[in-house]
Design brief:
Elements: H1 4-7, E1 9-10, H2 12-34, H3 46-50, H4 53-70, H5 76-85, E2 95-96, H6 99-120, H7 126-144, H8 148-158
Length: 170
């Protein structure tokens, strides 16, 4: 049997990460709904907008997405999965190319990044909408194995925009 590095990554790992991410995003949506985003955001200073708990949590999530793009193997949820979860499961039977999940992390980063910038610019509901969109994508992956960012990657690959070379190592 070929080693895991040559055939791809354990397909359950990204779903595990998506489950944790969706939980964090759900909390963020709640915080945003009761915070500045849903209220008088224009009256708040930039410092007050940056200190909003929903903003801070979404910023932390954005940094986790960035980590997942730059170094997916050392990202916290990947390490937690490999060290604490995977040893308790049966050997993986399904492997996947690591490029689509990595691209999906980038899409998540872009979505929440736009929400963060628009929140600082006092755009009402921007943070709520960005966090909710990211939550839907993460939840679909965690609950049903439907990775929207991965599907976008494959579509872009078909039309020749991204990755025609062999899969990169995780």
């Amino acid at each position: 049997m070929p080693d895991a590095q040559s055939v791809g990554i354990d397909a359950r790992g990204p779903r595990f990460a998506a489950a944790i991410t969706s939980a964090l995003l759900l909390v963020d949506v709640f915080l945003a709904l009761i915070g500045l985003s849903a209220g008088p955001i224009a009256a708040a200073s930039v410092a007050e907008r940056a200190a909003d708990p929903a903003f801070l949590l979404l910023l932390a999530i954005a940094l986790l997405f960035l980590w997942g793009v730059l170094s997916p193997r050392t990202a916290p949820w990947a390490v937690l999965y490999r060290r604490a979860v995977a040893p308790r499961l049966a050997e993986p039977t399904e492997f996947e190319d690591p490029r689509p999940p990595r691209f999906a992390q980038g899409v998540g980063l872009a979505v929440v990044g736009i929400g963060l910038v628009l929140h600082l610019a006092a755009v009402p509901w921007a943070l709520v909408i960005a966090a909710a969109m990211a939550f839907v994508a993460a939840f679909l992956n965690a609950a049903f194995g439907v990775c929207l960012g991965c599907h976008l990657y494959l579509l872009l690959q078909r039309i020749g925009v991204v990755g025609r070379e062999r899969p990169a190592r995780a």
